[in-house]
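Incident log, support desk, overnight shift.

02:14 A customer reports that sequence design results differ from what the structure should imply. Their input is reproduced verbatim below. On-call engineer (initials T.W.) acknowledged and began investigating.
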């Protein structure tokens, strides 16, 4: 429920259940940049950033720790076209709602622009069409038949109608995904070396963020990419990446003895060095538990990088029509393929704390290596203080591995 008080922007007032993650679909200003914060905090580093889509909707996931009848108050500060609006957000943690503070709607309001439907392919068409024909029709690249797991997922994704949406790519200034070496301050996952790689795939379920540091955002990013190890790439730049990000901030009320966790989930791409910051994909919903099937492909004939990311949990499945990105002056060596869980870079060698996702796995991990040779390398992760953090990670049917500051078991 939304109310408007005289002299104020729209007020959002809801009851949310304690201990349960609840999405709030809040209508602000179309194409606005918003910051969720406490009323007394004006420092943007003590709030969580959201971008409103073309309808002005932001999706805020909230989880209060315990039940309390008192109303917790926050502010959503949104700026667009040089104008700033402040939306009060009032939340009550309880198992029962009230007329003044109802439970929020369970689903997002229908989009004004619904996109177009990409028709399903028959199995005969899926096997017969060339890679170029698939790309021209808006389908992701087909994995080799020997890559059974990604091929099976790919066939499932193209055998049903898919809603194709026109994305709006927004530069998320201050958030980046930096090149790293195998013993990394931010990467955890797997890397294949050799190449040249021209296609790779991955599939994962978006992990739910459970905990973070108080009063400052924590982040984790799940992605696949090509290049990015500066010791191996030589003159090459990169990485070329597509993935999802999971961010969290927690606020504590000493008065109510209560925590409120707010999270933000979204998809992004980045192609360094021409894109210093990640490009957030708007008009494309990402929620914890959603199944993502992603691919990156390089087209030497047009000197472009192509990104595909599909949300197979939507009904029908949804895929943004991301335009190809030219190489420009970037040297693309394509000597590594990566499947990574990462804590986000805020600037060169400055990293956010890693959001607690408990467990995450990636499957259907496969890279195409035309005429190349590859080997296998684990990538460790540690925090800036040297204490090891780790990510649980599995690729296809490989044994689950725990990566620490000393590296990953082979």
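02:41 Re-run completed on a clean worker. Output:
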């Amino acid at each position: 429920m939304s109310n408007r008080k005289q002299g104020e922007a729209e007020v959002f007032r809801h009851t949310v259940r304690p201990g349960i993650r609840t999405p709030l679909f809040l209508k602000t200003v179309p194409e606005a940049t918003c910051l969720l914060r406490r009323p007394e905090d004006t420092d943007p580093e003590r709030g969580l950033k959201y971008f409103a889509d073309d309808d002005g909707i932001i999706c805020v996931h909230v989880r209060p720790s315990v039940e309390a009848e008192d109303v917790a108050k926050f502010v959503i500060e949104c700026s667009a076209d040089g104008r700033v609006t402040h939306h009060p957000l009032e939340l009550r943690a309880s198992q029962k709602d009230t007329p003044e503070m109802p439970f929020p709607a369970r689903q997002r309001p229908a989009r004004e622009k619904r996109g177009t439907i990409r028709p399903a392919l028959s199995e005969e068409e899926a096997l017969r069409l060339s890679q170029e024909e698939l790309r021209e029709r808006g389908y992701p690249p087909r994995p080799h038949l020997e890559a059974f797991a990604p091929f099976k997922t790919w066939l499932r994704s193209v055998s049903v109608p898919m809603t194709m949406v026109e994305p709006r790519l927004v530069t998320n200034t201050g958030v980046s995904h930096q090149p790293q070496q195998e013993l990394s301050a931010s990467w955890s996952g797997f890397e294949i070396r050799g190449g040249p790689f021209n296609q790779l795939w991955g599939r994962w379920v978006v992990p739910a963020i459970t905990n973070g540091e108080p009063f400052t955002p924590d982040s984790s990013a799940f992605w696949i990419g090509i290049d990015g190890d500066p010791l191996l790439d030589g003159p090459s730049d990169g990485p070329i990446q597509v993935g999802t990000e999971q961010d969290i901030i927690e606020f504590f009320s000493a008065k109510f003895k209560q925590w409120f966790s707010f999270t933000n989930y979204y998809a992004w791409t980045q192609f360094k060095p021409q894109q210093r910051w990640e490009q957030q994909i708007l008009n494309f919903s990402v929620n914890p538990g959603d199944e993502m099937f992603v691919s990156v492909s390089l087209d030497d004939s047009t000197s472009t990088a192509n990104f595909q990311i599909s949300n197979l949990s939507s009904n029908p499945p949804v895929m943004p029509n991301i335009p190809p990105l030219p190489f420009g002056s970037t040297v693309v060596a394509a000597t590594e393929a990566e499947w990574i869980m990462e804590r986000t870079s805020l600037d060169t060698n400055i990293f956010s704390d890693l959001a607690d996702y408990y467990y995450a796995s990636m499957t259907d991990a496969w890279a195409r290596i035309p005429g190349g040779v590859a080997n296998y390398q684990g990538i460790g992760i540690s925090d800036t203080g040297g204490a090891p953090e780790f990510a649980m990670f599995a690729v296809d049917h490989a044994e689950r591995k725990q990566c620490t500051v000393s590296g990953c078991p082979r």
